[in-house]
Amino acid sequence: MGGQKAAKDAKDNMKRGRYDELKGILEERRREIMSEVQGRMRDVRTEGAGSAVQGVLDAAESSELDIQDEIEFALIQMKAETLSKIDEALRRLEEATYGYCFECGEEISERRLRALPFAVRCKDCEEAREVKQQRDRLMAQRRGAASLFIDMQG
Ligand SMILES: [Zn+2]
Fold it and tell me: What is the pLDDT of residues 52-97, one digit of tens each?
């Protein structure tokens, strides 16, 4: 099986402790989100049942409730997206591509991954990227200001 071989490679290539650590971070995050989603779904159901009993009184407020339900739903959807990102990260961990910098190939520190489990760059590369983006923005602004100046002259 290809999958099993990839998993074995991951464990061989990566330091054993690091593999376990990263897996732990992702699974812990996964559990947190799962229980949060389950809690929210329970809340939505309970509120739904309550409003049905109160009947007519709630009809006036139903639009407000709908908005609340929509917010809840959007939150649950966001959590679901995060869950699929975690699954993706776990899959990449098995393939030994998770936890390495996309730019330089160095290991991304555990501390960084704990704070940002979906980070694809190491701290140095991310900072370099941000500096470059800032410079690009500044250049664009200067160009914009310069052309404005020329327009005013004309
Ligand atoms: Zn890097």
Answer: 555 655 555 666 668 888 888 898 899 999 999 999 999 999 998 9
Confidence (pTM): 0.65
Between the CA of 4 and the centroid of ligand 1 the distance, in Å, is 28
- Dist. CA 18 → ligand 1 center (Å): 18
Give me the pLDDT at residue 11, please. Answer: 54
Nearest to 11 by CA among 91, 90, 95, 80: 95
pLDDT in tens, 14-31: 677 899 999 999 999 999
Distance from Cα 111 to the centre of ligand 1, integer Å:
15
The CA 128 to ligand 1 mean position distance, Å, reads 9
What Cα–Cα distance (Å) separates residue 109 from each residue in 102, 104, 105?
Answer: 13, 13, 12
- Residue 30: partners with Cβ closer than 8 Å, 6 or more residues away: 83, 86, 87, 90
Distance 118 CA to ligand 1 centre (A): 14
- Ligand 1 center to 41 CA (angstroms): 40
Nearest C-alpha neighbor of 99 from the set 12, 23, 8: 23
